[in-house]
Amino acid sequence: AIVGGEDSGSYEGALAVASTICNRADAGNWGGGHDPLEVAKAPHQFVAYNGDLYNQYIDNPSSMPDYVIQATKDALSGTRNTTADSFRSFEKSDKLCAQIGTNGNYYFQA
Fold it and tell me: E strands, the chain, where?
């Protein structure tokens, strides 16, 4: 649900968000340790969780796009489309961007 709330409407965007969460879990030094779900739910990490955007899918699971489910499964299985551990949705960052996704999000190493 968090990936769906942040993904910008595409499989590639969903995979990038899920990849970022998994990259943080792999690193283990973000809130939540090595557990991707706890990383995603950590305070002040993902707007979709902290701002309740994910509730649109929690309250109505059938509204979750299939590409979001597939991208999340793919990332959890090791498929990643970014090595970034952070991003800004539709916002130019003053940090060096590692990748500018096709979804309009800016991905970068913190």
Answer: 86-88, 99-100, 106-108
Separation CA 45–CA 2 (nearest Å): 11
For residue 83, the 8-state DSSP code is -
Instruction: For residue 38, give the 3-state DSSP assignment.
Output: helix
Beta carbons of 50 and 1 less than 8 angstroms apart: no
What long-range pairs does 51-56 form, CB within 8 A, spacing at least 24?
Answer: 53/5, 53/6, 54/1, 54/2, 54/4, 54/5, 55/1, 56/1, 56/4, 56/5
Phi, psi of 60 (to 5 degrees): -145, 75
| Local structure of residue 63 (DSSP, 8 states) | G
| pLDDT mean for each 10 residues of the chain (110 residues) | 68 88 92 88 70 64 84 94 74 46 51
